[in-house]
């Protein structure tokens, strides 16, 4: 068999989401599209980086750096993964772009649309690949669901999607420097959880391809406690079709451990199942008026599911592309603009907002 192409990753920060991403990179897989190599790890201290490497990629020996800049400037690194909190994404991306390194940056991409535009302008000037890591958009489950909804029209004319993402976070017990408490770090449910709810609504209500999609009308409300937003509720309305999305997020209560979203159409509905809105495992199609079980579509679970976005990013970089087809820059900007409007209506402001 032909050996798959290889790509060498530089990992920025050693937090939880970086550990999940790296664990998926090093998973043994049958017939992989790409061979992923953890080439370098950047941390605030060498000891932290060494512990991270020993725990999460024990079969390799990545170079450990006590700064991010050294990762960006390492000629052996082909692409950089940025897993820092939202508020650091703009600086991290701009630093990597100056070094000419392709980027996969976690969502939410930045704190607001203005920061995203600044990053993309710099990337365009330097001709550097940048991709927001909204991993939902790469999952085979999502691709099949969109095909059935928008091409096969298995539930007829879609008119509504209802989706929620909830976690129970004891915010008062956290230190003031926590990303869940500090507005300067993008604290609140919207950027952390609501971006998933919003993405499910966009994917199921809008048949357009990414970058050629409608900007829905937004009605939003937010509740604040302990100085941060803790609950967001949004009504999206697509003016061209009348389709509506009921989108919510909260850090006040655990979410439904089984049900993620319901997509309703003129001929039936679809339930998306999984332990959280970020972890879909199956969906079931129900015909309107039918009695009994619906048709369930289940998908194999490979690690946590980050490998799909990692493969697609690697193939983009190896092919010399500068944007990803599932999450082009225009789509990142559309989502950021919607979240800016939600925050404007809900009364959530970050120090970087002008």
TrEMBL record:
Leader sequence range is none
EC number annotated for this UniProt entry: 1.1.1.179
Q: Which GO terms describe its molecular function?
A: D-xylose 1-dehydrogenase (NADP+) activity; nucleotide binding
Q: Which reaction does it catalyse?
A: D-xylose + NADP(+) = D-xylono-1,5-lactone + NADPH + H(+)
| Domain GFO/IDH/MocA-like oxidoreductase, chain residue ranges per copy | 146-270
What InterPro entries does the database record attribute to this sequence? Gfo/Idh/MocA-like_OxRdtase_N, Gfo/Idh/MocA_domain, GFO_IDH_MocA-like_dom, NAD(P)-bd_dom_sf
The Gfo/Idh/MocA-like oxidoreductase N-terminal domain extends over: 7-131
- What UniProt keywords apply to this chain's record, in alphabetical order? Oxidoreductase
Q: Spell out the protein name for this chain.
A: D-xylose 1-dehydrogenase (NADP(+), D-xylono-1,5-lactone-forming)
**What species does this protein belong to?**
Aspergillus nomiae NRRL (strain ATCC 15546 / NRRL 13137 / CBS 260.88 / M93)
């Amino acid at each position: 068999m032909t050996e798959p192409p290889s790509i060498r990753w530089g990992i920025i920060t050693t937090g939880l989401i970086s550990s999940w991403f790296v664990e998926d990179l090093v998973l043994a897989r049958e017939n992989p599209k790409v061979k992923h190599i953890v080439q370098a790890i950047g941390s605030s201290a060498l000891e932290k980086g060494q512990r991270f490497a020993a725990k999460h990629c024990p079969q390799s020996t990545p170079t450990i750096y006590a700064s991010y800049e050294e990762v960006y400037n390492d000629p052996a690194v082909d692409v950089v993964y940025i897993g820092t909190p939202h508020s650091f994404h703009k600086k991290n991306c701009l630093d990597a772009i100056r070094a000419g390194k392709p980027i996969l940056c976690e969502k939410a991409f930045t704190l607001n649309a203005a920061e995203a535009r600044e990053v993309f302008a710099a990337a365009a000037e330097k001709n550097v690949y940048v991709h927001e890591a909204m991993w939902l958009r790469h999952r085979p489950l999502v691709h099949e669901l969109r095909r059935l909804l928008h091409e096969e029209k298995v539930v007829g004319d879609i008119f509504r999607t209802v989706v929620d993402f909830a976690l129970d976070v004891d915010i008062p017990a956290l230190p003031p420097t926590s990303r869940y408490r500090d507005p300067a770090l993008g604290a609140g449910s919207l950027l952390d959880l609501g971006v998933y709810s919003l993405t499910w609504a966009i994917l199921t209500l809008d048949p357009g391809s990414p970058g050629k999609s409608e900007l829905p009308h937004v009605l939003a409300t937010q509740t604040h406690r302990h100085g941060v937003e803790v609950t967001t509720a949004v009504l999206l309305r697509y003016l061209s079709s009348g389709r509506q999305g009921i989108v919510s997020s909260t850090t006040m209560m655990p979410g439904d451990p089984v049900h993620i979203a319901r997509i309703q159409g003129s001929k039936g509905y679809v339930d998306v199942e999984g332990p959280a809105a970020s972890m879909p495992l199956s969906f079931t199609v129900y015909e309107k008026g039918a009695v009994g079980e619906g048709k369930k579509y289940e998908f194999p679970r490979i690690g946590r599911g980050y490998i799909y976005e990692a493969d697609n990013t690697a193939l983009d970089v190896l092919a010399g592309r500068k944007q990803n087809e599932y999450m082009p820059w225009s789509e990142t900007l559309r989502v950021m603009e919607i979240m800016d409007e939600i925050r404007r209506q809900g009364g959530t402001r970050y120090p970087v907002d002008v």
